[in-house]
Specification:
6 helices, 3 strands, globular, 107 residues, alpha+beta, Arc Repressor Mutant, subunit A, single chain
Length: 107
């Protein structure tokens, strides 16, 4: 039986969920990478993040449930992409904040 992933309706997405999802550095790194690449196979994240696949699955699930990403199964792979309407329709300023934070450096 094929996998089916649940994605929240746009009207059910809240800033509380989004901020929780983005509060973790790993999830923020995933989002920033997706903003550059557009679509990733979840297995492509493993070399960059250096953690067990089960932990990475937890992070991608948190992003999906917060309404930030789409996950589409394809065979044994899962393709993850940015959920653009969350940023463009619901929280347009959020995308600029995430991108702006990428250029900020810490001492």
């Amino acid at each position: 039986m094929p996998r089916v992933y649940q994605h929240p309706l746009l009207e059910d997405i809240s800033l509380t969920q989004i901020f929780f999802a983005l509060s973790d550095p790993v999830r923020l790194k995933i989002i920033r990478k997706l903003l550059i690449i557009e679509k990733l196979n979840s297995l492509d994240l493993v070399p960059d993040i250096h953690m067990p696949k089960s932990t990475l699955t937890h992070h991608t699930k948190t992003l999906r449930e917060a309404g930030l990403t789409y996950t589409k199964p394809e065979g044994r792979n899962c393709w993850i992409s940015i959920r653009r309407e969350t940023f463009e329709k619901k929280y347009p300023e959020l995308l600029q904040l995430i991108l702006k934070g990428e250029t900020h450096t810490h001492d």
